[in-house]
Amino acid sequence: MTAAQANETAAPVISAKGLNLTFQTNDGPVHALKDVNLEINKGDFVSFIGPSGCGKTTFLRVMADLEKPTAGSITVNGVSPEEARKTRAYGYVFQHAGLYPWRTIGGNIRLPLEIMGYTKSDQDERVKRVLDLVELSGFEKKFPWQLSGGMQQRASIARALAFDADILLMDEPFGALDEIVRDHLNEQLLQLWARTNKTIGFVTHSIPEAVYLSTRIVVMSPRPGRITDVIESTLPRERPLDIRDTPEFLEIAHRVREGLRAGHAYDD
Amino acid sequence: MTAAQANETAAPVISAKGLNLTFQTNDGPVHALKDVNLEINKGDFVSFIGPSGCGKTTFLRVMADLEKPTAGSITVNGVSPEEARKTRAYGYVFQHAGLYPWRTIGGNIRLPLEIMGYTKSDQDERVKRVLDLVELSGFEKKFPWQLSGGMQQRASIARALAFDADILLMDEPFGALDEIVRDHLNEQLLQLWARTNKTIGFVTHSIPEAVYLSTRIVVMSPRPGRITDVIESTLPRERPLDIRDTPEFLEIAHRVREGLRAGHAYDD
Amino acid sequence: ADQVTLQLKWVTQAQFAGYYVALDKGFYAEEGLDVTIKPGGPDIAPAQVIAGGGADVVLDWMPSALASREKGLALVNIAQPFKSSGMMLTCRKDAGVASPADFKGKTLGVWFFGNEYPFLSWMSKLGYSTEGGADGVTVLKQGFNVDPILQGQAACVSTMTYNEYWQIIDAGLSPDDLVVFKYEDQGVATLEDGMYVLEDNLKDPAFVEKMVKFVRASMKGWKWAEENPDDAAMIVLDNDASGAQTEAHQKRMMGEVAKLTAGSNGALDPADYERTVASLLSGGSDPVISKAPEGAWTHMITDKALN
Amino acid sequence: MRKSFLPVLTVVAAIFVLWYAMAVVLNAAWAKDQAKRAGVELSFSELVADTWAQDKPKLPAPHQVAAEIWETTVEKKITSKRSLVFHSGITLSSTLLGFVLGTVLGIGLAVGIVYNRVMDMSVMPWVIASQTIPILAIAPMIIVVLNAVGISGLLPKAIISMYLSFFPVVVGMVKGLRSPDMMQLDQMRTWNATASQQFWKLRLPSSMPYLFASLKIAMAASLVGAIVGELPTGAVAGLGARLLAGSYYGQTIQIWSALIMAAALAACLVAIIGLIQRVTLKRMGMA
Amino acid sequence: MGWIVFGVIAWALGWGLNVWLSRLPRSRATGLAVPVVFGITLLLIWESIVRGFGISPVLLPAPSAIAGRFVASTGILWEDFVQTVLKGALSGYVFGCGAAFLTAVVVDRFPFLRRGLLPVGNFVAALPIIGMAPILVMWFGFDWQSKAAVVVVMVFFPMLVNTVEGLQATDAMQRDLMRTYASGYWTTLRKLRLPAAMPFIFNGLKIATTLALIGAIVAEFFGSPIRGMGFRISTSVGQLALDLVWAEIVVAAIVGSAFYGGVALLEKAVTFWHPSQRG
Ligand SMILES: Nc1ncnc2c1ncn2[C@@H]1O[C@H](COP(=O)(O)OP(=O)(O)OP(=O)(O)O)[C@@H](O)[C@H]1O
Ligand SMILES: Nc1ncnc2c1ncn2[C@@H]1O[C@H](COP(=O)(O)OP(=O)(O)OP(=O)(O)O)[C@@H](O)[C@H]1O
Ligand SMILES: Cc1ncc(C[n+]2csc(CCO)c2C)c(N)n1
Ligand SMILES: [Mg+2]
Ligand SMILES: [Mg+2]
After folding, report:
1. pLDDT tens digit string along C125-159?
2. From 3.30.980.10, 1.20.58.60, 1.10.3720.10, 1.10.10.10, which CATH number describes the E70-278 domain?
3. C142 to chain E nearest CA, in Å?
4. Of C212, D84, E9, E34, whose Cβ has the fewest other Cβ atoms within 10 Å?
5. Which residues in chain D are closer than 8 Å to A85, comparing Cβ atoms?
6. Which residues cross the membrane (chain D) (predicted)?
C-alpha cells in the first residue's frame, strides 16, 4: 500500500499548463482564467482562495471537465479531463448541498451508485459505510429538509465519497454554515482525508479555513484570474483545532492575507 | 453637541426587561426568546452572536417593532418600539440587501425619503451624500442586479442611513460577502459610526467581526434564546484592521468563542 | 346487409320521423339495409359531411344543395318527401309589422349556415337591402332559439310551422300577438328536406340499388308516420339521445310535419324544382345561384322505388 | 384550510343572495308582461314568487336549478337519456381521453424541446400560435373532417380536448424539465450520467410540481373542449348537448343545471388531480 | 405522386436547414429564422398533401387557396375584425381586466374577503365558463355587447386570482422594510406591492388575451349580427366556403399572436427588472 502510494505520488494527478478561459457573454468576453499553471500531486490537499469572481470555481470546473479551457492544456491522471470524467475519477461537492428533495439521505447517496451501475448489495454496503464516515448513520431514511444545513452538507460529502473517485473537488462546501459547525466539519474533513488519502481541491473564502486544511494554498487574483501565489503549508499533517492559535498558523494566514490584499482593488 | 450627547447617554436608548417571545407554529410553540434583559446606551455598537436559530434576528425584530414580545417590556428612547417606529427612529439593514429590483440604486435609497415626505431637493442632496459615504457615487442610475453582492449590500446600508434614524439595526449585513470585501466594509462601518455617533445593533456569525466592531458583544444560547454572556470590549474606539492580530483582540475573541461553544451542541 | 348512413339536417325530432319509423319498424331491415342515422346540429353542414364520405345520403334544403352544387360538390336530389315548405317569418304585432311592406327598417332574425338562401331571395324579390338602413332590413343571425322575438330584439324571427312557431306560443305569446308570413304564401317557397347523394355514386348500379331500397323503405316510414303521428313521435322520442325533447312538443310537431309531407309520394315534382330554381336565380345583384343547374335531380331512384 | 372555511361560506352565501336578487330583476319584466296580458296587477310578493317559479326564466332561481338537478340525477336511472349522470359520463369519457392524449402529447413535445435543439428553437412559437387559433369556433368543422377520415365517436371530441389541454402541459413541463439548476446538471455530468439517467433521475422528478400545476389547468381546458365539441355534434349526448338542447328550446333551467353539473365535474376532476398531487409530492418529500 | 415527393423533399430540406441553423451561434436572426423555416415547411407539406391526395377543398383547402381568398376578401375580413376583435374582444378585455384589477385591490384590503373570494375565484376560473355564452347572449342581445359580456366573464376570474396573488407576492422582508419606515397602506401599495405584483398581473393579462378572442368568437355562434369572425366562420362552413373560413382563422391567429405579443412586449417594458425578463 505505502509502496504503491509512493509510486503514484511521482506523477502529478492534475497538471495544468498555460490554461486560459474566456467566456463569451452579451457584454463582451470575460477573461476568467489567464495563464494558469499548477501541478497537484496524489494526496495533496490544495485550497484555492481569492476575491469573488476571480475564477476559483471556473478552475475547479475545468478540472472536472465541466468547462473547456480556451487555451492551454490540462491532464488528470495523465489523460484529458473528459476521459477522467468518463472513468468517474471525480467526486464534486458544490457550495450548496444540492441534495434532491425527493430522495432520502440514503437515496441521495445511492444516486451516483445507481448511475454508475453498482450492484444493489454493493450500494447498500457503501451507503452504510459513508454514512458512518460522516457520522450520519440513523439518518438514512430522513429527507434532506428534515436535516440541518450542516448535516445536509455532510450528506453531500458522503455522496461524493460513496464511489471510488480518487479526486475530491469541493467548491466552498462550508460557505453557508456558521462558524462553530464549520470548525467541526473542518476537523472531520481533515480526518477523512488522512484516512482515505484522496487528492482534494478545495475552494474557500476563509483564510483560516484554507490555512487549517491545506497542504498547499493557491492564491488567485481578480479577473483575469491568475495564480499570484502558491503557499506550501509547514503545518504538520496532524492538526488539532488549537493549531489555529499557534504563531506558525498565524504566520501562514498573514502571508495569505497579504497575497490576497495585493490583488484586491477594494471596489469589488 | 458634546454636552447634549453626554446628556443623552444617561438614559438607555434601548432597554429590555424580562423579554420572552414564543411563536405558535403547527409543530407546537417555539420559544425563541427567554428572559432577555439588556440595556443599550446611546452611541453603543452592540453585536449579537450565537448559534443559528438562537433568536438573534427575533431580538432585533422585537426592537424594531416587527415582532411583539409575548412577555416582558421593552422601551426605545423611553417609549414603546411602536411609537419609536412611528417617529422613524430605525434604520434597518437585512441580511440580504433586499433592494427593489424595479428601482435604480438611487431610487432605492430615495424610497424611504419619499415615504417620509422629504422635499425633492433634500432627497437629491441626501442620496448624493450617502452614495458618497458608501463609495457608490456614479452607480446611482444602475439597477441592483447590475451590481455585485457587496455593492448591493452597501447600497442597502446607504438606504438605511439616508434618513436621520438614530438607531441602526443590522442583521448579518455582510454574511454573504467574501472576507476581503467584508474587512473593507467593516472598516467603513466603524468610520461611519465614529462620524455619526449612531447607536448600532449588529447581528453576526463571525467572531472576529463581532470583536472588531463592537463596544459590547452579546452572546446568545441556542433555543430558547437567552443571553449567556455580555462582553465589554476593552479595545479602543480607533481600530485599524491590524488590531485583529493583537493579543487583546485574540483574548476577547477567545472569550467569545468559549461562550459560544458552551452553548453549542455539536450535533449538527 | 348493405350499410347506409343517413345524415340529418338537424337534431333528432319529428321532422325526421319517417326515417326513424323505418328504422324502428324494421322497414330498412326488410329491404336488407343496415341504416345508421346521424343526427345533425347547428353547425353540421350535410354537404360537407357527404363530401368527406361521412354519409351515403344526406337531407338538405334545395337552395343549400344547389349552392353546393355550384361550388363544385355535385349533389343530386333523389327523392323529395316534403311537398311543401314549412318556413315562415313570424312577427310581433306590437312591433308594427302587418305586411311585408312593414319590414323596412326592422330587425329580422334569420338562420344562416346555408339556410339563409330562401330569405335572401325573398328580400331581393321585395327589393330590400339586407344591409340595414331605413330602406332595408337589419338582419340578425338567429341563434338556436326564438329568444330575439320574445325579448323584442327582433321584430320577426324565422320559424318552422312545426317547430319554432310553437316555441313562441309555448313561451307565452298568443297567436293573436303574432303575424306570420309563410314562404309558401309569399310565393318564395323552396323545397326542404330532400334526399341528396353524390352524382358520381349514381354511376354505380349497386349504389343505385341500395338507394332504391332506402327510398322505398323511407317513404314507407313516412306514410306510416303520417297515419300514426302519435306513435311516430314516440319513436322519435326514443331515438333522441339528448333526452331534451318533450312528448307534447314532438306530437304536435309530427302533426304539422304530416301536413307538409302529405302531398308527396317521394318523387320530386319538377314544377316545384323549377319554381325553387327560379326563385333562387331571381336574387337581384347577388343571386344564390348564377345559372340554372343541370342534372341536379333525378327520378331514377324514385321510379324504381315507387313502382 | 379551516381558517378560510367561514370566509368562503360567507362569499358563497353572498353569491346566492345576489343570484336570487338577480333572478327577481331579470325575470320581473316577463312576469309583469304576462300579468298585463292577463289583466291582473301583481303585488311585490307575488312578483317575487313569480320570478322564482317561472317555467322559462331568464335566470332561474337556485332552488329551481337544484330541483332540476335532483330530478335528473337522483330520480332518473343512470342509463336514461334524461339522466344528467348519463350525460356527465359521456362528457367525462371524452374529457379524460382528451386529457390523457393532451398530457402525452404535451410531455412528448416538452421532452423534445428540452433535449433537441432544433425543436427547442422551432416548435415553441408555433405551439403558442396554435392556441390563438379559435379551435372552439372551428370545432364543428374539425369533427366533420375527422369523420371524413374515419375518426368518429369519442375521438373527435377528445382531439379537441387534446388540442386545448396539451398547451399548458408543454409550457409547464418545459419549465419543469428545465427547473434543475446548473449545479444539479453539472453534478450528473461529473458522475458521467447518460441522457436517460439524467431524465429519469433528475429532470422528471424535479418537474413534478410543475406537471401537477399544468395538469390542473389542462383538465379544466379538456372539459371545455369536450363540451364545445359536443355542441355541434348534433346535440346527441353529453353536457354540451344538454346545454345546446336547453338553449334551443329556451329551457334555461336545463342550461343552468348542465352548467352547474359541468362546473361540479370540473371541480371534482381538478380536486382529484390535487389529491394525487398531494400524495405524490408528499411521498417524494416535496410537499 | 409528384406532390407527395415534393412534400417529402420540403420536409427534409426544412428540417435539414433548421438543423444547420440551430448549430449556428444563437442570435436574434437564427432565433427568428428557425421557427419561420419550420412554419414554411409545415405550409409546404400541407399544400402538397392537399394536392397530392386530392383532398376536397370542401374539407381542407390548400394554403395557396387560403392566401388567395385572404387577399380577395380583405374588406370582409376587416369588417369582421372590427366587429369581433375591436368591439367584442377588446372592450370586454379592457373592462373585464380592469374590473378584476380593482376588485383585487379591494379584496386584498380585507383579508376576510380575500380568504373567502380566492378559493371561490380559483374554482370559478377552472370552470367551463364558455358555457355561459348562450345565457349571456340571451341577456345582452345579439350585438357586440353580449360578446363583450362573455369576454368579461371569462377573463375576470383568471385576472382576479393572478392580481390577488401578485399583491401577496412581496416577501416578508420587503414588507418589514416598509414597516420600519412607518409607511401607510396606500404608500406601501403604490411603492412596493403594485410593482412587485406586476409579473403576476401580466401573467393574468396574457392568459386573458387568448380567452378574450376565443370568447368573442364562440359567443357569436349563439346569435350575432351578420358580421363578425365567428359569424363568418359558421356561415361559410354552411356555404362550403372553407377558404374563407381558413382566412378568418388566419386573421384570428395573427390577431391573437399580435395581441399576446403586444402584452408580452408591454410586460417586458414594465417588468424589465424581473429575472425572467433580464435574460
Ligand atoms: N458561464 C459563464 N458565463 C459567463 N461568465 C462566467 C460564467 N461563469 C463564470 N463567469 C465569470 O467568470 C468569472 C469567474 O467566475 P468564477 O465563478 O470562477 O469566480 P469565483 O472565483 O468562483 O467567484 P466566487 O467566489 O464568487 O464564487 C466571473 O467574473 C464570472 O462572472
Ligand atoms: N415567524 C416565525 N414563526 C415561527 N417560528 C419562528 C419564526 N421566526 C423565527 N422562528 C423560530 O425562532 C427561532 C429563532 O429564530 P431567529 O431567526 O431569531 O434565529 P437567528 O438567531 O436569527 O438564526 P440565524 O443565525 O439562522 O439567522 C428559530 O428556531 C426559528 O425557527
Ligand atoms: C343555427 C341554426 N341554423 C339553422 C337553423 C334552421 N334549421 C335547419 S333545419 C331546421 C329544422 C327545423 O326545426 C331548422 C330550424 C337553426 N334553427 N339554427
Ligand atoms: Mg465560486
Ligand atoms: Mg437570523
Report:
1. 888 888 877 778 888 888 777 888 888 888 999 99
2. 1.10.3720.10
3. 5
4. E9
5. 189-190, 192
6. 90-114, 126-148, 210-233, 253-276
